[in-house]
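I'll show a record.
***
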Amino acid sequence: MTLKVLPNAGRFLSICVLLLLTATIALRASSTVRAWRIRADAAGFELSVQYDGTNWLTNWFGDLLREAAADEAAVLLTCGESTSLTTMGNLLATNNTSGRFMPRAYTQAAGAVRARELGHVLSGSVFGSGGLDYPAPGSGFMYLSAIEVWEAGAVLRGVLPGVHAPLHPSTQLTDGAVETSVAGMPGRRFVVQKSNTNIGPGAFVIDTTGPWR
């Protein structure tokens, strides 16, 4: 298990610990070893679970970096709608509304709405499914893009804090590797988090320096 909490993350620390305890209880009946990783700040966390002992499933709960300052409901929850991998809300799949929810619409009208993540054109259908060779020819850098969260339809609600999409194939990245040569982000440390969906493998790159906001 890995628990990485950035400074001033007290609000979500108790939730992270509760998830770890729940996971431990739930897995006692299984002999399969499963790893858990949580990275968090004061207003959100990323949770990656090695759900079958080999592959990772990545989810998010928390506030976004708001596109509109007055949007009090710019909060994303990704979760399972059933036990099928296709509906587990893995953050990895782009332009997918399954298992992705926001508490209210951008109008602030009551009632949850579905959301989707979008990124750079090189991301394809899965973050980390293609792009530049790694390290990038010429510069030797790792290149990242922001992960945008859109209300189902055509309303940009915000950007995921701290969690980025690599513009490189995940097959050229190493899970858990620490990266410090990231273009445009000197002085920060990042860690590679590989993940998997029913449509293929991919990856995220997560800021472990902070602050995220």
Q: What stands out?
A: DSSP finds one helix and 15 strands in the chain. The first helix runs from residue 10 to 26. The first strand starts at residue 2 and ends at 5.
